[in-house]
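User: My collaborator sent over this chain with a note saying "see what the structure looks like." That's all I know about it. Can you take a look?
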Amino acid sequence: MIQPVDLKDFLLTFFVSAGIILSGACYALFYAWGRLRGRAAFLRGAWLAYAVLVACTLTLVQTAHLNGSWSTLALLMLAGYFAAPRAIFRLCADTHAVGHPKTASIAFKEKTP
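Assistant: Without extra context I'll predict from the sequence alone. Here is the result:
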């Protein structure tokens, strides 16, 4: 059975949970802006946001006493957060490239001769 969160860790758990939501959103936004604009600074911001997401998730696992299958679920969530923005961006770029081939080459920074 899962142990309840200690009272001294309640605020930390609250803020870390909010950090998971915010850093996940920032990762997706920075990744999309970086790919659309072709700017490495946004992609570095995406990596930083993902690092914060990992730190917040590991802290939540520790403070909320998530053991066993719950910690495995948290790791699966991290993998999903990593892959989802990439897959969604690729899907959007491919579906919009059907009618607009120039848009796809800009989004993926492909050089056409």
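A starting point for your reply to your collaborator: Helices lie at 10-37, 40-63, 69-96, 101-107.
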